[in-house]
Amino acid sequence: MVKICCIGAGYVGGPTMAVIALNCPSIEVAVVDISVSRISAWNGDQLPIYEPGLDEVVKQCRGKNLFFSTNVEKHVSEADIIFVSVNTPTKTRGLGAGKAADLTYWESAARMIADVSKSNKIVVEKSTVPVKTAEAIERILTHNSKGIKYQILSNPEFLAEGTAIQDLFNPDRVLIGGRETPEGFKAIQALKDIYAHWVPEDRIITTNLWSAELSKLAANAFLAQRISSVNAMSALCEATGADVSQVSHAVGKDSRIGPKFLNASVGFGGSCFQKDILNLVYICECNGLPEVANYWKQVIKVNDYQKNRFVNRVVSSMFNTVSGKKIAILGFAFKKDTGDTRETPAIDVCKGLLGDKARLSIYDPQVTEDQIQRDLAMNKFDWDHPIHLQPMSPTTVKQVSVAWDAYAATKDAHALCILTEWDEFKTLDYERIFDNMQKPAFVFDGRNVVNAETLREIGFIVYSIGKPLDPWVKNMPAVA
Ligand code: NAD
To answer: Which of 272, 284, 350, 417 is catalytic?
Structure first.
């Protein structure tokens, strides 16, 4: 029986391994992590992450050929194939701070593999890493190898949170990069054989190691660039009276462009886009390519601009001050169908409004109060100017409350901001919400989920990203 061990039981390691276990009953899969609370959650009824369809997959194979454990060394030493799916955040200190990937977790996983292994291993990079990481990992592994042979593969993960299970069952492609040597090809084939249990062969792409590592960064950069492109257009739409949904539709009909990923919004978030682009920027700079670095940096600058623009719209529309006003925040996760708040635009929007002394009442169907308070209290790392901004003061913390539903959040509020596109926000009883709000009642739709005309008929003043402006909003000078 082939044994797989995955180091890192997070948003990638957990779902990816559960889908492998379900599709390959003859393979034993152990997912290990140093976090005791995460592993107990994976072994309990309330999984540590929310992802549609995940519960069913885990329940079908947990205890049969899928195991979650904190006994990292035991499972690593017994495995034939080791996936490394640890976090690779942006470095916050030292050389490359604010841009480069922090490979501390990766390095410690690699050292541990080298220490405990007693047989040959295939080590798979599942985490997103800088190009050439495999070379460094190889050095760590072979430095003290005691005759053990390692083959390093790059197998970046392309799942999107919120649709992870669907993406894993039916991937657009599986990418496997390896050394172009007989042993390298053999290792690639071994991993290919696993995916071939359910992925059609023509969707399994094999490349050299560096192409696989770079393709993941490139894919995220292209995706984020599309969002920043449409968001940049949304500002121009507001200035000219064009409607960004109509423009996106017309542009997306071109088969060379395609219709997906063209929705204007308050900005992209999530743990990957910003971090991976910063990493790409850093790699370009290190390779003496400042023009290429600046090109990609602009994708993040437009994203920051879009979040600032949104806050400015809110403040300027509300008589240039939100001080002491209650503002309901609907949605805090970085996208719908996930509870993940890493780099969510909601953090920046909330901090912007708190900076103007607003009182916030926040509701998200999947994010806990603890998480929201933690996120808002956290230092924000300003990547362009590597300084730590001040954390929230105790008085600011008092300006934030968390509500149990959208009606409680909006009661007596002056405005509501929709920051995540949760389906339930489309079908709220907006007449009831309007009746319970202060007047004039404002809606700032950062995801274009509500029908602005219907809401205007109820009496709301509505701002939708990239849409022709409400006369009220238009006549207030925007501080963009
Ligand atoms: P995560 O933070 O949810 O999970 C990482 C886990 O690794 C944590 O539970 C942590 O405790 C564990 N860990 C760290 N060091 C360890 C060690 N030495 N031994 C054992 N466990 C250790 O991160 P994630 O979102 O799953 O992302 C993992 C990687 O996958 C990152 O490189 C990320 O860029 C990449 N990725 C993420 C996504 C996504 O949508 N989240 C998609 C594709 C790729």
So the answer is: 272
Alpha helix (H) ranges present in 45-93?
A: 54-61, 72-78
Ligand 1 pocket, Cβ-based, cut-off 6 angstroms: 7-13, 32-35, 38, 72, 85-88, 105, 108-109, 127-128, 157, 159, 161, 271-272
Q: Length of the chain in residues, anyone?
A: 480
C-alpha 199/C-alpha 192 separation (Å) is 9
Q: What is the reported pLDDT for 384?
A: 42
Q: 292 in helix, strand or coil? A: helix
The reported pLDDT for the residue numbered 382 is 47
Is 61 a catalytic site residue? no
pLDDT of residue 407: 98
Task: State how beta strands 326-330 and 359-363 pair.
Answer: parallel
Tell me the HSE value of 169 on the side-chain side, using a 13 A CA sphere. Answer: 8
Nearest-atom index, ligand 1, CA of 49? 3
- Give the model's pLDDT for residue 118: 94
Q: How far apart are CA 413 and CA 365, in angstroms?
A: 19
Domains defined for the chain, CATH in brackets: 3-199 (3.40.50.720), 273-475 (3.40.50.720)
Bind-site residues: 8-13, 33, 38, 86-90, 127-128, 161, 272-275, 342
| Cα 369 from chain centroid (whole Å) | 20
Pocket mutation for ligand 1, best pick of 19, 31, 33 (most atoms within 8 Å of C-beta)? 33
List, in order, residues 6 or more apart from 305 with CB less than 8 Å away: 235
pLDDT along the chain (480 residues), means of 10: 95 98 98 97 96 97 98 97 95 90 93 95 96 91 86 98 98 98 98 98 97 97 98 97 98 97 97 96 97 98 98 96 97 97 96 96 97 86 44 70 97 98 98 98 98 97 95 69
C-alpha distances (whole Å) from 208 to each of 28, 153, 167, 214 are 28, 9, 24, 10
**Which residue's alpha carbon is at the smallest distance from atom 32 of ligand 1?**
127
Whether the CB-CB separation of 27 and 2 falls below 8 Å is answered with yes
Which atom number of ligand 1 is nearest to the Cα of residue 12? 26
